[in-house]
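Please decode residue identities from the backbone states below.
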């Protein structure tokens, strides 16, 4: 992410310290992670210590300090999904992408995470990609879902 775009996001919020989290969220949304150079630039522009910016970026789960894939894959492991085969779905996604939960593939296409519940238990097992819910997923249908994402 270039400095001009970072500055534009910051200027949209008038560089007020109260909007620091929102600025980091917007940068993360576009860049998929928060490199140290970006955090340093935000720190300088907001005139707040880098340690404060780092504390915020490392405290909230929404932020990542390591590169993430273009597509965020979440597999629900809640009780309803678990009993309907979520573990098999997770294993299938791991086999198809070559990554384990908590990892990102080398092409930065997919990042895989497990979650405790996505709140749509009747649709289990559930896989969510980029906020879109795919319910009643089967192991045989998993590849088709993943292939629909470039």
């Amino acid at each position: 992410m270039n400095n001009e775009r970072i500055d534009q996001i910051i200027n949209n919020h008038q560089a007020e310290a109260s909007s620091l989290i929102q600025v980091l969220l917007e940068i993360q949304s576009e860049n998929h992670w928060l490199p140290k150079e970006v955090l340093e630039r935000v720190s300088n522009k907001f005139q707040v210590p880098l340690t404060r910016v780092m504390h915020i970026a490392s405290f909230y789960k929404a932020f990542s300090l390591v590169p993430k894939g273009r597509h965020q894959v979440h597999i629900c492991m809640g009780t309803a999904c678990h009993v309907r085969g979520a573990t098999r779905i997770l294993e299938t996604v791991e086999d198809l992408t070559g990554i384990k939960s908590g990892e990102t593939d080398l092409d930065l296409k997919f990042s895989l995470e497990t979650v405790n519940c996505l709140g749509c238990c009747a649709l289990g097992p559930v896989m969510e990609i980029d906020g879109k819910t795919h319910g009643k997923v089967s192991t045989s249908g998993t590849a088709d879902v993943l292939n629909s994402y470039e």
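Observation: The longest strand covers residues 71-76.
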